[in-house]
Design goal:
It comes from Triticum turgidum subsp. durum. With about 140 residues, the chain is α+β, with helices and mostly antiparallel strands. Helix content is about 35%, strand content about 15%.
């Protein structure tokens, strides 16, 4: 895949992530039947993941459960700071946090929303200084 095509698809994925859609790509690769191990041997076989042909990208909505936004608002009004830690990418985490009311500013950036790898790279003193400011950590 050319760099231009990869950037084109990456943009679609980022746009979907910003709408709190979880993205799944579908691809295939033709295999010669002689290269496929027997059923008994497949237990440790890893499917080849190179030379794939992309056939589609799907964005799936995983909406907040009913009552989450109200619960976040109740906590916030009671003086409890709600924080979100997730395995989602930064754009998806931001969109979900906005949907749930954890974030109110769509332009929020570090340290309010911070990736775990960035936070872990901080010194102990730096982590201590920003810990209270963090609302979302993907």
């Amino acid at each position: 895949m050319t760099s231009d095509k990869a950037n084109h698809f990456r943009k679609y994925i980022e746009d979907m992530a910003e709408q709190s859609l979880r993205c799944v790509a579908f691809a295939y690769r033709n295999l010669d039947p002689k290269d496929i191990p027997s059923e008994e041997q497949r237990i440790n076989w890893e499917l080849p993941d190179n030379d794939l042909t992309l056939i589609g990208i799907v964005g799936m909505k995983d909406p907040c459960r009913p009552g989450v936004r109200d619960a976040v608002e109740l906590c916030t009004n009671s003086g409890v700071k709600v924080r979100m830690v997730t395995g989602d990418n930064l754009q998806t985490a931001r969109a979900i946090a906005l949907e749930c009311g954890i974030l109110t500013d769509p332009q929020a950036s570090a340290p309010v929303i911070i990736e775990g790898k960035v936070f872990r790279a901080y010194s102990d003193a730096e982590r201590e200084a920003v810990a209270d400011k963090i609302s979302v950590r993907p």
